[in-house]
Amino acid sequence: MKVASNVEDLLTQVLAGEVWPPLADRHGYRVDPNGDAFYLPGMGGVTLDVHCGDPATGYRSDHLEPGLSVRHRETGPNYALQYLTCIGNRVEVSSGPKKGALGFVIGQHAYVLVDMEGDEMRGVTTGDQVTVLAVGQGLKLADHPEIVVKNCSPALLSAMAGGTNAAGQLEVHVSVVIPPEAVGAGAGMASEYANTDLMGAYAGLDDDLSLGLESLRIGDVVAMPDQDHRFGRGYREGWTSIGIISTGSCLLFGHGPGPSTIMSGPSSSFKIVEDDTANLSFFNLVQHRELS
User: What is the count of structural domains for the chain?
Assistant: First the structure.
């Protein structure tokens, strides 16, 4: 993205975590929007064969977390991992058979989510340690002080199409514009933590639940009009937030594929360009050995 920023002022910290196993409780089952019970895989562990660019919906899963689900076993360090990690940050596996394998952060949910090459991912398991080169929080756009940037690494900002246009707006390329009525779980939470679930992509359920979001892909850049995510997440007319789809299929009502927020500001400050190549897979961040 062709835009002036304060990237030279940012610090990089090395954060630690581990691949966390899937969890369940003794009750097991949940209930979908039609009242039917289900018990499906989704959160935690290593989820194979779903990468950036792949469909976010259509799987027999609930709260699908693609790739590695990473957290720290202690509360304080885990919050630091959630709040300081940014999309595009470099991740290195630091123990186990795939020690040295590289990936990159694609967003936050209950865990920090990491994509990597499929052959590499198949050798990673729960309990393996990872290190994250965290940089990006505190990023500011010099010519757009009204736009708050968060969870966005300098590598991601550089790789995104668009930039400051002749009218002084920030041009952002997005795959999908999300209708405001789709925003579900996550409203009211801190926008540096976890993500926002989008309703309306319940494959195989009632048509009247569809909001046209079945085409979402993991890694899509999306625009969320009438959403103010600067200091939390909530509905506000005349504001727009930009996010990256980091989680997939859900069956729990009020939940769905989720974007992690990277920008938020007045709608008048953005020029939104719909572009189906606006996805992390096309940014190919993992190929950059100097990822930051």
Answer: 2
> Within a domain: residue 142?
no
Are 180 and 197 in contact, with CB atoms under 8 Å apart? no
Rounded distance between C-alpha atoms, residue 197 and residue 195, angstroms: 6
Last residue within a domain, chosen from 108, 134, 160: 134
Strands (E), 120-161: 129-134, 148-149
Helix (H) or strand (E) holding 184: none
Beta strand pairing call for 234-247 and 221-228: antiparallel
Instruction: Give CA–CA dist 145/263, Å, rounded.
Output: 12
- Same domain assignment for residues 153 and 281: yes
165 within 8 A of 225, measured Cβ to Cβ:
no
Specify the amino acid at residue 240: T
Give, rounded to a whole angstrom, the gap between the first and last alpha carbons of the chain: 15
DSSP 3-state of 81 = helix
Q: Which domain holds residue 70?
A: 7-20+39-134
Q: What is the pLDDT of residues 98-127, one digit of tens each?
A: 999 999 999 999 999 999 999 999 999 999
pLDDT tens readout for residues 53-74:
999 999 999 999 999 999 999 9
pTM higher than the cut 0.90: yes
Q: How do beta strands 270-274 and 37-38 pair?
A: unpaired
Residue 159: its H or E element: helix 154-159
